[in-house]
Amino acid sequence: MKLENLHDLFVSELKDLYSAEHQIIKALPKMVKSATSAELKSAFEEHLQVTKEQVKRLDKVFRILDASPRGKKCKAMEGLLEEGKELMNEDADPSVMDAGLIAAAQRVEHYEMAGYGTVRTYAKLLGYAAAAKLLQQTLEEEGEADQTLSNLAESIINVEAMQTA
Hints:
The chain is 84% helix and 0% strand. By secondary structure, it is mainly alpha-helical. The protein has a single domain (6-162), classed as Ferritin, core subunit, four-helix bundle (Ferritin). α1 (6-34) runs antiparallel to α2, α1 (6-34) runs antiparallel to α4 (94-126) and α4 (94-126) runs antiparallel to α5. The relative contact order is 0.16.
């Protein structure tokens, strides 16, 4: 796909996020299985449901643009998730594993927040108000997921990991 203007870049970035979300949907059940903290398992399970809704929202954005979501693989997400997979294969104390899973998940959330912030801004500039609103909703959800993970890390998980010897 040749990027001739901001609209082309906007569509390309949306395709990247669409691919990223699908990769996350495949990865989250494995993260749930690897987590030992009930609160962390619950946070991952909840975010899986939220992510599925985010994909539906992206589908709406693509319909607004009369564009296909297919045709791009998010290599950055692939790399972030591969790092998480490597972590899950480590022989780690359960609380240390949970702390590592939070770190891996937050890297994913931060990548998504950067991506959604960018496409939301493009949507506004290009006059796609409805798309901008949908993308803003997803951006807010990603921020909430990040905050949930931070709260779990700071109040429970990292404290438990620190006490292992």
